[in-house]
Amino acid sequence: QVQLVESGGGLVQPGGSLRLSCAASRLTFSSYTMNWYRQAPGKERELVAAISSSGGSTSYADSVKGRFSISRDNAKNTVYLQMNSLKPEDTAMYYCNARHISIDMVYWGTGTLVTVSS
After folding, report:
1. Shortest CA distance to 107 belongs to which of 65, 87, 79, 66?
2. What is the DSSP letter of 104?
3. Which of 38, 44, 49, 75 could cross-link to 70 by cystine, CB 3.0-4.6 Å?
């Protein structure tokens, strides 16, 4: 059974940083585009960042450009989200998502909570 396990969330003050990790198992990691989504209370889930299967291409939501950075290590089956200059509006549950590059196969993690507050 495929598993995506997020870690690294927590409470941080505005302006602080966090690094999220998502460890994948039981899938061919290099065949998946990896994405980070977030969902704040009362809001819809939104795509925050994406990285191609090779890691050569990334994209970001306008709200996080210049502050967040997505990366992956295909040897470790892990994707990361470095979050800097955090704002209270970044508070949300952050989810890891794996999407196969050629077939209709998508997996989700259970999320890690990020709270930005003083």
Report:
1. 79
2. S
3. 49
pLDDT in tens, 63-107: 999 999 999 999 999 999 999 999 999 999 999 999 999 999 999
- Gap between the Cα atoms of 67 and 35, Å rounded: 16
Strand order in the sheet with 3-7: 3-7, 18-25, 78-83, 68-73
Tokens of 39: 């969902």
Determine contact, residues 117/91, Cβ cutoff 8 Å. Answer: yes
CA distance 38 to 6: 12
Cα–Cα dist 45/61, whole Å: 12
